[in-house]
Amino acid sequence: RTVIHWFRRDLRLTDNTALHHATQAAEQVVPVYILSDWKQRHGWTGPNRQQFLCGNLESLAKNLEALGSRLIIRCGRADAELERLIRETQAQAVYFNRDYDPYGRAMEKRVQELCTRLGIECHSYQDSVLHEPDAVLTGAGLPYRVYTPYSKNWLSLPKTAPHGRPRTLGPAAPATVTSLPLPTLEHWQLPPCTAQIPAPGERAARERLKHFISSGILHRYGQERNLPAGQTTSMLSPDLRYGLLSIREIYQRCQEALVDESGKPQPAAAQASIQTYIKELAWREFYMAILWHFPQVFEQEFSPDWVGLPWPGTDADFQRWATGSTGFPIVDAGMRQLLKTGLMHNRLRMITAMFLTKDLHCDWRLGEAFFMQHLVDGENASNNGGWQWSAGTGADAAPYFRIQNPWLQSARFDPEGVYIKQWVPELKDVPAPLLHEPPSRPGLPLAKGYPIPMVDHHTERDRCLAIFAKHKEER
Ligand code: FAD
């Protein structure tokens, strides 16, 4: 019996649910990855994430080869390519892990229809989440609109243990089943990736997980996660984005980390840190559930109150934000970290997103797209959720008038300016306290070559509140 495993956002062999079931059910599993031809249609990714994808595919192909199998690469619409492959291999079933975003979902429907039409089996599995969107609902069976009650329910549900790693996928597909070469950025007509992105592949991801836990970052997470200087968080988001690590394995490692090597419970603060970390994993699934239940958030504001809200920010303002030259050191540091590494600390994502929407009054959709073009971990659900939360239009218990002051954020989370100086070297000789306030003499820059702040935060805060209030009044 031959079956196909369709790799999607699950580019690993260990604890891959659909792959596990495929190998149990058939003597030969033909692994396939189908490259999209999206570049012609939208600009929602860029060299950083695609380069990471290329590296992940290369690593996956090697790991499959080590098992005597061969990764088949195709390009085009998944259902059409799968149909071809089914005919070529005489496969009797297609296996895949479910994706919860609207594009993934729409394609799954087509693949299911294809299998029905061809009279073969179609098996899909829960894999990238601990709980699927429809498994975490209110008592009335409705989706949650705010995080806290969602997370309480999510935390209380039993979690599945990981599967192992398959020992074999059976013989490789014969040479008549052709494969495209491993992709490079040219496939999508993208320029080279110049950012220092994380090492790709399952093994590198496992090293990151190991480091996060064994170096104690997990155990200090509750106290340190908001500090952007140095590594204070797991840095596993790209691994989760591409499924280089299984969410079940991460969860299990967290549970194991509650006790030390001799089996003694960790101190209370360390245990609380681990719980805090697990709650962050719930945020990821919360936003996936929001996108699943309310797919309109892609185009419009989650909160109906704010649909049609004007965003009078200019293109020139946006460009200064995007290039990290606003004159607000903390904002510029965040944007430059993004440009140089394809990643940005969560606290900085909030600060920069709020600055763009509430100080510069630019449409959150512009920032959302810019992040998607640069982030290695670019994830539709989390990115949209994070942007709408920051813009004050999202699934959030707090009202729109929560506007963070970038100067105060800076003083609170990077008091010594270590993070700022790392990413904005022009400021390396500026004493820390001066980094957290507008220049005392207006018009005089903090350092040579560094711009003066492009706006006054208090003025823009008032303007933002006025825009929101007027919209509310006129509705
Ligand atoms: P850790 O602090 O170690 O957290 C562990 C994991 O929990 C993360 O890897 C991530 O999967 C999840 N997580 C943590 N915080 C959040 C959150 N607020 N929302 C959703 N999941 C969370 N995350 C993405 O994965 N992709 C995105 O495209 C993305 N865009 C964002 C845009 C904005 C404007 C904001 C405010 C947040 C965004 N986030 C996004 C969430 C968060 O910033 C990143 O998940 C986090 O910075 C990744 O670093 P880490 O793995 O070290 O996180």
Q: What's a quick, concise take on this entry?
A:
This protein has 475 residues and is mainly alpha-helical. Helix content is 47%, strand content 6%. It has three domains: 2-127, HUPs (Rossmann fold); 129-161 and 202-293, Serine Threonine Protein Phosphatase 5, Tetratricopeptide repeat (Alpha Horseshoe); 304-470, DNA Cyclobutane Dipyrimidine Photolyase, subunit A, domain 3, CATH 1.10.579.
Numbering strands along the chain, what is their spatial order in the largest sheet? Answer: 3-2-1-4-5
Bound molecules: flavin-adenine dinucleotide
Give the integer mean of the pLDDT values: 96
Tell me the structural class. mainly alpha
The CATH topology of the largest domain is given as DNA Cyclobutane Dipyrimidine Photolyase, subunit A, domain 3
DSSP helical segment count? 19
Give the low-pLDDT segments.
Answer: none
Distance between the termini: 61 Å
Domain Photolyase/cryptochrome alpha/beta: 1-130
Cofactor: (6R)-5,10-methylene-5,6,7,8-tetrahydrofolate; FAD
Site (Electron transfer via tryptophanyl radical): 311, 364, 387
EC number: 4.1.99.3
Helices, strands, pairings?
Layout (H helix, E strand, L loop, with lengths): L1 E6 L9 H9 L2 E8 L11 H20 L5 E4 L2 H12 L3 E5 L4 H17 L2 E5 L21 H10 L45 H13 L2 H8 L12 H5 L5 H10 L11 H26 L21 H8 L6 H13 L4 H14 L4 H11 L5 H12 L14 H8 L4 H6 L8 H4 L21 H18 L1
Parallel strand pairs: 1-2, 1-4, 2-3, 4-5
Helix pairs in contact: 3-4, 5-10, 7-10, 10-15, 12-13, 13-15, 14-15
This protein binds flavin-adenine dinucleotide.
The site of flavin-adenine dinucleotide (FAD) has 29 residues, from helix 8, helix 10, helix 13 and helix 15.
Protein name: Deoxyribodipyrimidine photo-lyase
Enzyme class: lyase
Keywords: Chromophore, FAD, Flavoprotein, Lyase
